[in-house]
Structures are given as C-alpha cells and as structure tokens.
Design a protein that fits this description.
heterodimer, A: about 350 residues, alpha/beta, Aspartate Aminotransferase, domain 2, 7-stranded mixed sheet, 12 helices, globular, B: about 270 residues, Rossmann fold, 2 domains, 6-stranded antiparallel sheet, 6 helices
Amino acid sequence: MHKVSKPHAFITTLEGLQRLLDLFVKRGFTVYGPVLKGKSWVFSEIHSISEVDLNYTRSILPPKKLLLPPKSSIFSFKLNGGFEILESCDFKNVVLFGAHPCDLKAIEKLDGFLSLYPEDVCYKARRQGLFIVGLTCNVVDEHCFCSSLGIGPEASTGFDILITQIGENFLVESGSLKGLNILRELNFPEAKSEHLEAKMRHIEDLKSRFTKKADFKGLDKIAKSKLDHKVWLETAEKCLSCGNCSMVCPVCYCFDVYDSLDLTLKEGVRIMELDSCQLLEYAEVALGGNFRRDRYQRLRHWMLCKFGAAGGSTYTSCVGCGRCLVYCPAGIDLTEVARVLKGG
Amino acid sequence: MNPYIPRKAVIRSIRDETPDIKTFRIEFKDGGFSFKPGQFVMVSVLGVGESAISISSHPEDADKFIELSVRKVGNVTGSLFKLKPGSTVGIRGPFGNGWPIDKALGKDLLIVGGGCGQGALRPIILDVLRHRDRYGRVELLYGARTPQDLMFKYEHELWASVPEGCLMLTVDAVPPGVEWKHNVGVVTKLFEKTAIKPENGLVFICGPEIMMHFAVKGLMSMGFKGDQIYLSMERRMKCGIGKCGHCQIGGKYVCKDGPVFTYGDLAFEPDKIV
C-alpha cells in the first residue's frame, strides 16, 4: 500500500457513498459490507449502501475470510503414473467495505505474517486484489477493548479509504494512492477543518464510551513465566475446545493441508482449510502422540498466541475486537485471564 | 514462486532397514538439490498427502540423490511403502536449520540417536566418515527397541571404525533366539562409558522426545550446559515454511526456527516432554 504524504479528506453524503459503491461495481469489484442478518452482522456482498448497517459493532467472521478463505485450493493435480500440477490461486477483485479499526489492524498483521519468506503467493494475490474501505466505529459495546490495546478507535493506517460519519455527512479520507485516485474521480468537495475537528470529537467521544479495559502490556513475557498458573486449568474447566475463538479471531491464521481426490481417483485438489489449535488433532503426531493433549494446554497455547508469545509473535496478538468473548459458548474472557496473570 | 508446489522426484531404489523402516533413494527430474545435514523435506504422495521427513544421506551426494529413511506410521508413510522403484513422489524443501556444523568444527561430538531418529543424524555421521579431520573425538550412541529395529546395520562396522571414536549400541529388549553382543538398556546408560567431556564437547540428539528428556537430564548432570546440547525436534507439520501453525512449541516454529534447537532455546517453552 502506498502511503500518501498527507491524507486527502473529502466530505460527502449517503448518496455519495452510493456513488462510491457504484464506481467499485463498475470497475468490476465485488463489494462486501456489514449486513445485519438476524441479530448478527455478516460481511456479505452488497450493491446498495442501504444494505449496510453503518452502526454495526462486529461481524461474526472477520474480514480475514476474504483473504484466508475457510477452505481454498492450493493447487489441483492429475495422477497419470506420476502427477501433473495445475497451479491456480482463486481470487477476484474485492472491496472490503466498512472494516473497523480492529479489523484493519488485523489485516495489517496478516499481511506482515504471510509475507514473511517464503511468501504465501495466493494470499498475496488476494491481498493485491483487495481494496479496503475502513469505517470509524459509531458504536462501542461492552465487549470492545481495542482502545486499551492502543489499536482503536482511530484508524491511521491499513485502509485505502476511511469513512467517518459526522452527523448526516461522511468524512472520506484516502490512505493510499489508489484510494485517492478513486476519491478524485467522484469529485467530492474537500473537507473543511470543521469536519476534521468533528471527527476528532467523535473519536474522543468513542474513547470515553469503552467500558471493557484490558492490559496486555508485557503479557507475552509474564504469561510465559506463569505457565503453571492455576488460571489456565480453571479456565480450561469451562472450555469446550470447540475452536470458535480461532474461527472468529481476525488474526488466527492456522490452517490444515490435505488432499481430496475426485470420484475418478485420477484428479484431486490440495486443500488449505483454516484450523484451530483448540482441536485435539491439531498437535497430534505419529502413533497417537500429542503434545497438547490436555485442554488447558490448548487453551493456554491460544491465549499465549493472543498475548504475542506463540510462534506468530505480535503478528497474531490480540486486536481487541471482542469476537472471542462474544462467540465463546462457555463465556471465556481473554481479558479476565490477562487480568489474573498480571495480578490485578 | 509458490512454496506449496512440490518438485517431481523419482524413487531409484528402496532399502529395508527394519520391519517398519525403509530408506528411499530419490532423484530429482528437474535438476539439482542441496541441503544441510539435519534439514528435512515435505514428501508428497499426491492424493494422500504430505509428511515431513529428515534427509538421511550426505549433502555431497545431493546432486545425484537424496535418501529418506521413513518409518511406516500413517497414511502418507503407508502409501510410500507401497511404492516401487520408478514411482514419482513430490518433494518440497529442504526446510529447517539443520545441525550446527560450524559450531561443531574442531569439537568433540557426542551423537545420540534413538529409534528412527538416527535418520536425521546419519548425514552428520557420514560427514565424520568423509571429513574426519573436521571434528575432534566422535562417539556414536544409538539405541532402539530391539536389535532388529536398528537402522543402517550395513554401515555399523564402518561407523565403528572411525579413528578417535566409537560406536555404542543398545536395545531395550532382546527377543529370544536373537544374538546380541552389545548393551541392553536405555541409551542414557551409555553416558557412563563416554570419554567426551563438557569442556570441548557438543551433543547432537535425535530420538523420541521422552528419550531426549532423559538424555538432557543425564548430560546436564555430567556438566553439559543447555547450549551445548542440540536436539532435533518432531511436531506435526503441514506446511514446512512457518505458516500453518501446527509445529509450534510455544514461541518457536519447529519447521523454521528448528528442527534443531539447543536445550537452552527450548527450556522455557511449554507443551513438550524434553
């Protein structure tokens, strides 16, 4: 992403956002935005701004589903005595419309992790085809804690365009050259200092509305020095090892790889499927050995990961989106474990 | 270049090592290959899957072939066992860091193997045989379940002939009727007989993690420090390139940061036996 030296800010209306969506569609992008389904929000294909709930809190699955699909093909192959490999990365030009600051940060982390040598070329292809429109939150709920982690509620990077609602109007800022080029085409009026000031007041107001606090500072080292703390066992008593936390986590990237043959047994696909370290099979080795056989070991591994102490380091540490708290059927709260470990 | 695409390789020959271990000699169809002792490859049987296997041959032969000593334990290794010379397999890699040869130059080397872990140690043993002057005293300690579970039996005489060195074999049990003139008991019992001292020694270990656990304990009590003891670790691996997450030991990726670690590197990581 090319950073522009000074973000260009424009002001528009809901009708202007519709023109923005129309321009994306005209350019051949498929646009995904937060749509209310039942009581939850889902990033779904949208054509009209009226489908988008600008007051959403969080989607069930994070936007990583557009970059790391739950299931994707690494390559297909033909068996002919030996084998022939047909390389393909399935991707299309996609707009992620309305990603909140926590999810923007998560994508930046995934970008960093998956571009480590050797780079995941299919991720890269999908990422290069992804145009990101961020949305400053309108609502902070009791599960949000990005503010404590210094990640939100103000996004400064990770978007091509950032939208902030100001009363009936929308402040639209560019975060990259391709974002600026799109905005210039729409001829929105330039934002005035009063609009930028209104945004800052909105951000300050959001900050004051966080009720959930989390202190993860230094927790990577603290948690690793307390591997025998009873909080792991006590929390694991409640855990169902369902893996929901990994599925909804915007930075959990772990995946399984397996082959699937079609009915002819002559052609098949090597599949990458998102996986969870909470599942028993995840760390199983040959002859039934398992280095994280106990539930508390799996829970501890996941939480160490979110505290930045697992193999993904800070690339996979928590962004404070609150999804794992909301979607844990046992009500396990990462921030509570953090609080106990920090002795607070 | 897509790091998930395997290269085509042909099985040239297959040797039976033990009732459940075979060594596959493999040639690449599309040019050369190079690796460091202790590195591994991901072996594909397309349609079945991929497994991480250490290379058991010497790097200097890699332009002609590599060898993979495989124990039959699951789907992919089971399928490999059904293949005949001439069959095609997929290979990705080499991956991982390998044994720290640079640090071992001029040092006394205690090489401790257990079971099929000996496969990952063989490149070092072959290096000692080919370049004897690179190392100080070299002792090979190798244990298996029974005499028939020892790999590379056809080379043991050669290994034992290394000047300024020795080969000590041990087994857990000797079945009735099997002739056995070496030791019986766990491999750590052989430590009593070693002449290698912590002052100028390094230890390379590969074997079941429980064996490495007791080996580390024994070595520490002999005065070896955590950074003199190198362990080749095994974990479930799906990608080999530090992405899929499966092989993590706490904050380490076995495939990328390892598979060879000093004990000191691992001492404070969770979810391990060693």
